[in-house]
Amino acid sequence: MTPEPTANPNADPEGTADHVLDADSPGSTASTDSVPAAASDEAAWSTGDARVDDAVARLGDLDERDLDEHADVYDTIHGDLADVLDDAGTTTPS
């Protein structure tokens, strides 16, 4: 016997999305505690690795850039973070 599927309380059967909970909605289980308020507010957060912190901080520059430049910024940040992962275990975080 197959169990009945349970309804998703956040589902949007009518496609309106007016009732979907987000992190700011009362009763939401979503959390923004681990997300920096702004990339420019470095004093409030740190990953413990200066290279990662620098990469994340560059996300804050996106608002000042044209939309057509965003992909290049993301690509550069991705490459930098990939380099950090490649170095994991071979160097100590700064």
What does this entry look like structurally?
With 94 residues, the protein is mainly α. Helices cover 28% and strands 0% of the residues. It is built from two helices and no strands. The protein has helices spanning 50-57, 70-87. Helix 1 runs antiparallel to helix 2 (70-87). It starts with 49 loop residues before the first helix and ends in a 7-residue tail after the last helix.
- List segments where confidence is low: pLDDT < 50 over at least 5 consecutive residues: 31-36
Give the biggest beta sheet: none
Helicity level: 25-40%
Strand content: under 5%
Rg over CA atoms, rounded to whole Å, is 19 Å
Oligomer: single chain
Please describe the structure with a list of short key phrases separated by commas or semicolons:
single chain, about 90 residues, mainly alpha, 2 helices
Question: What's this entry about, in short?
Answer:
With 94 residues, the chain is mainly alpha-helical. It contains two helices and no strands. It is flat.
Outline the secondary-structure elements.
Elements: H1 50-57, H2 70-87
